[in-house]
Design goal:
The structure is a single chain. The longest helix has 23 residues. The protein starts with a helix and ends in an 11-residue tail after the last strand. It is globular and about 55 Å long. The protein is built from 3 helices and 7 strands. By secondary structure, the protein is α/β, with parallel strands linked by helices.
Length: about 160
């Protein structure tokens, strides 16, 4: 399908809808609604990480997977260079670069000193428009830079009087 076949306004609206979907997913993961990420996928949606053979298929499995992240995890994902390619009125793909800052052992109100990202990579996404709504059909994680999630130690009470 060419740009002329789709129309520039429809192409632009599809691109923006897919970009917004990527950003909404990150917001839900980072700001306390991880299990609802599943609602951004098609019913048969897939999240995969080929490097370690991880493959999560279907909304309920995605809901369980994303909802099982540690309750004391603090994360912020920086997504950039979101390049959406619209293939038809109902199909699009995108590449999104990201860096993830993440620690476990977080307590509300704690200010965590700056650190390097835990992961840097990109996502390869496939979107499908279903009943007029753009959803993720497949998200593949490509992670060339990654490490374990750091666990914060107990707060340092040294120097405080009891």
């Amino acid at each position: 399908m060419t740009d002329e076949d789709l129309g520039s306004l429809h192409r632009m609206l599809a691109e923006r809808s897919c970009e917004r979907l990527v950003l909404e997913l990150v917001r839900r993961l980072d700001l306390g609604e991880p299990s609802t990420v599943a609602d951004l996928f098609t019913p048969d949606g897939v999240w995969e990480w080929p490097r370690d053979g991880r493959l999560i298929e279907g909304r309920e499995a995605l809901r369980h997977y994303f909802g099982s992240r540690p309750a004391d995890r603090l994360s912020r994902r920086m997504c950039t260079n979101i390049l959406v390619t619209v293939h038809s009125t109902n199909e699009a793909t995108a590449t999104t670069y990201f860096a993830t800052y993440r620690v476990d052992g977080y307590a509300e109100g704690l200010l965590v000193p700056p650190r390097l990202p835990a992961n840097v990579g990109h996502y390869e996404d496939t979107f499908r428009r279903t009943d007029g709504v753009w959803l993720l059909a497949k998200r593949t994680l490509v992670l060339p830079f990654g490490g374990p999630t750091e666990r914060l130690g107990e707060p340092d009470h040294a120097g405080k009087s009891s």
